[in-house]
Design goal:
Blueprint (H helix, E strand, L loop, with lengths): L6 H14 L11 H40 L4 H11 L5 H10 L1 H11 L1
């Protein structure tokens, strides 16, 4: 008896990968082996990028808080130490937003911990 090959499933798998490769340049969008490699690499970058985005935003928030704190005569580490000691529960995202967009509110927070 001949070997049975599930063409329906394998075609669906290939179509799924080629759909993910839509918009790629040259053979990467329509040649199965090239597209498969390109999509796999792209998914790896996407996974890594989701982790890196969190790191990058935290670093950005820290820079903004530091810049705002230095306007009021404190360093970032001194400000964060005092905020934690006072028990003020504002995270870095909120503090960075205050420092950038609401300097009066940020000054109030700094004055409260001084």
């Amino acid at each position: 008896m001949p070997r049975s090959v599930n063409h329906v499933a394998s075609r669906a798998r290939r179509k799924k990968v080629l759909k993910l490769a839509k918009g790629y340049f040259g053979r990467r969008k329509n040649v199965w082996t090239v597209a498969k490699n390109a999509v796999e690499r792209g998914l790896q970058y996407a996974y890594k990028g989701r982790k890196q985005k969190k790191r990058n935003f935290r670093a950005l928030w820290i820079q903004r808080i530091n810049a705002g704190a230095r306007l009021h005569g404190l360093s970032y580490s001194a400000l964060m130490g005092k905020i934690n000691a006072k028990g003020i529960e504002l995270n870095r995202k909120v503090l960075a937003d205050l420092a950038m967009n609401h300097p009066d509110a940020f000054k109030a927070v700094v004055d409260q911990v001084k």
